[in-house]
Backbone:
C-alpha cells in the first residue's frame, strides 16, 4: 500500500540534490486513515503511519524513518495489506544509506534490504551490486526529500524529477506541481499545495499521474491527503493525527 506512494529523480547539480532538511525533525509522527470507496461511498479500510527517530548507522548520524500500512481486519478478506518500510538516511544530505521493505499486499509478499554506498554510487542487495546515479533515493527517503522542496520556485504544470532505486532497478520519476488550493479533509480545512507524483505500477495502483496529493502550505509540508483510482473503486488517505512537528501547523484554517 505504501509503495504505491512510491514516487519521486535528480542528478548531481540539480537543486534537488542540494536540499537540506528544514521540514521535519526526529520524534515526528503522522498517522493516516485509509478510506476505500465504490459508487461514491467511503468506508474506513485501514491505517498508515510515518515516524522518525535519530540514530547512528555505522557510527554515522541518520534519520530512521518507519512507514507502515495495514488494512483493517474486517477488510482483509478483500485485500489484506501488511506493509512496513524503513529508511536510514544521512541527517545532512538526506541521502539514503539503508532501505528495508517487508510487504504483504493481497498475498504478494516481498522482502528487500538495500545498502547504499554514496561514495561509489552503488546499491548492494541480496541479488548483487548495482550501479546507481548520484542523488539516488529510496521509496521513503524520496518522500521526505519532497517535503523540503521550495514549491514557490515552480509554476503549475512544472515537473520536479528524481531517480529512485527499487527492485534492483533505477527509475526516472517526477512529481508535477499543480499549484495551491484549499482542501477539506477528515481532520480539518487547510491551505495546501497540490502535486501529482508519477507512480510505479504496483499491486494496488496502475501507475502514471492518476494520484493527487495535497501537502500543508507551511514549513512542515506534511501530506494531508492522497487520492487515486485503483483497479476497482477509489482510495483516499487522510491525515488524522500528528505529533512533535518541527514547525507550527499554520496552514490549518479550521477544524
Residues:
Amino acid at each position: 500500500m505504501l509503495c504505491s506512494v512510491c514516487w519521486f529523480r535528480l542528478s548531481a547539480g540539480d537543486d534537488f540534490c542540494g536540499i537540506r532538511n528544514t521540514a521535519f525533525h526526529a520524534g515526528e509522527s503522522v498517522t493516516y486513515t485509509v478510506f476505500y470507496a465504490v459508487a461514491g461511498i467511503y468506508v474506513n479500510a485501514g491505517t498508515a503511519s510515518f515516524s522518525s527517530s535519530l540514530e547512528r548507522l555505522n557510527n554515522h548520524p541518520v534519520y530512521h524513518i518507519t512507514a507502515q500500512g495495514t488494512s483493517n481486519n474486517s477488510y482483509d478478506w478483500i485485500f489484506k495489506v501488511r506493509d512496513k518500510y524503513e529508511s536510514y538516511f544521512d541527517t545532512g544530505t538526506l541521502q539514503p544509506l539503508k532501505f528495508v521493505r517487508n510487504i504483504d499486499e493481497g498475498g504478494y509478499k516481498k522482502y528487500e534490504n538495500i545498502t547504499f554506498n554514496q561514495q561509489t554510487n552503488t546499491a548492494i542487495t541480496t541479488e548483487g551490486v548495482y550501479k546507481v546515479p548520484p542523488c539516488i533515493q529510496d521509496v521513503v527517503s524520496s518522500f521526505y526529500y519532497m517535503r523540503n522542496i521550495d514549491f514557490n520556485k515552480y509554476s503549475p504544470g512544472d515537473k520536479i524529477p528524481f531517480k529512485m532505486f527499487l527492485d534492483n532497478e533505477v527509475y526516472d520519476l517526477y512529481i508535477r506541481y499543480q499549484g495551491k488550493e484549499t482542501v477539506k479533509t477528515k481532520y480539518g480545512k487547510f491551505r495546501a499545495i497540490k502535486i501529482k507524483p508519477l507512480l510505479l505500477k504496483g499491486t494496488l495502483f496502475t501507475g502514471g499521474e492518476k494520484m493527487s496529493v495535497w501537502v500543508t502550505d507551511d514549513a512542515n509540508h506534511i501530506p494531508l491527503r492522497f487520492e487515486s483510482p485503483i483497479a476497482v473503486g477509489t482510495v483516499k488517505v487522510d491525515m488524522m493525527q500528528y505529533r512533535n512537528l518541527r514547525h507550527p501547523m499554520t496552514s490549518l484554517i479550521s477544524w
User: Anything to note?
Assistant: Residues 1-14 have pLDDT under 50 and may be disordered.
